[in-house]
Specification:
alpha/beta; 9 helices; disordered N terminus
Length: 252
């Protein structure tokens, strides 16, 4: 990296939602390692504050399903730093259930966080990106956007993540004229606390999962963070794309 590019990177400000653990935390760490000032957001103040301290950044509490809260965080980031360069929409939830057992409440809750929350964050930070004539958004999608989940079923999550990838395409076309890039990264099965809740302690399910991955192992959060950092900072001609990081699962 040239000295001038290094200085430019050091001046950047990135916001990562859902950064209190798992992939979000790994992304915050990776961006900070590149000299980016990271604003960690999370519903959990304890874990979010700890990650912000770890990366030498800032913490702002945020529930992305609350549009007013998202707008408030966007405004606060710009007030503090007079700029924002990168937004990583990582916050998300999953619910495992057969489709016939998914209630309206579950459906709306998952989509409110995973899809609507991602759109609202894009919109609120998009105002600032468009005004400053630059910005990079990375939405965290999933291989679930491309395949039906199996052996576990979570239809609301699958639909939401498909929407997250399409959102990146739609906004990329609309905002390219303003110098704003919008992409998505779609992780495969990754060793995270969320995966713990759906079967990492079940040897049979773990065997099924690993059997679906040509690389023969789960991914690590840090491996997803490498891809996100590349898309956010380095892939300056890339927009409207979803980058799969899945150990080869979709290639089969």
């Amino acid at each position: 990296m040239t000295e001038s590019l290094q200085r430019h990177t050091e001046e950047r400000v990135a916001v990562v939602t859902g950064a209190g653990q798992g992939i979000g935390r790994a992304i915050a760490v990776a961006l900070a390692a590149r000299g980016v000032r990271v604003v960690v957001t999370d519903r959990n103040t304890e874990t979010g504050t700890a990650v912000a301290k770890e990366v030498g950044g800032d913490f702002l509490p945020l529930d992305v399903s609350d549009p007013r809260a998202v707008a408030g965080v966007a405004g606060e980031v710009v007030r503090r730093f007079d700029r924002v360069d990168v937004l990583v929409n990582n916050a998300g939830i999953a619910h495992e259930d057969d489709a016939l057992d998914v209630t309206d409440e579950i459906w709306h809750r998952v989509l409110d966080v995973d899809l609507t929350g991602t759109f609202v964050a894009c919109r609120e930070f998009g105002h600032h990106f468009v005004r400053q004539g630059s910005g990079s958004i990375v939405n965290i999608s999933s291989i679930a956007a491309f395949i039906g989940s199996n052996p576990e079923y979570h239809v609301a999550y699958d639909v939401a993540k498909a929407g997250v990838s399409q959102l990146a395409r739609s906004l990329a076309v609309e905002w390219a004229q303003y110098g704003v890039r919008v992409n998505a990264v779609a992780p495969g099965r990754t060793r995270t606390p969320i995966l713990d809740t759906v079967g990492m302690d079940d040897p049979q399910r773990m065997t099924q999962w690993i059997g679906q991955i040509p690389m023969g192992r789960l991914l690590e959060a840090e491996e997803i963070a490498v891809a996100v950092t590349f898309v956010a900072l380095d892939a300056t001609a890339m927009t409207g794309q979803t980058l799969l990081v899945d150990g080869g699962q979709i290639a089969q």
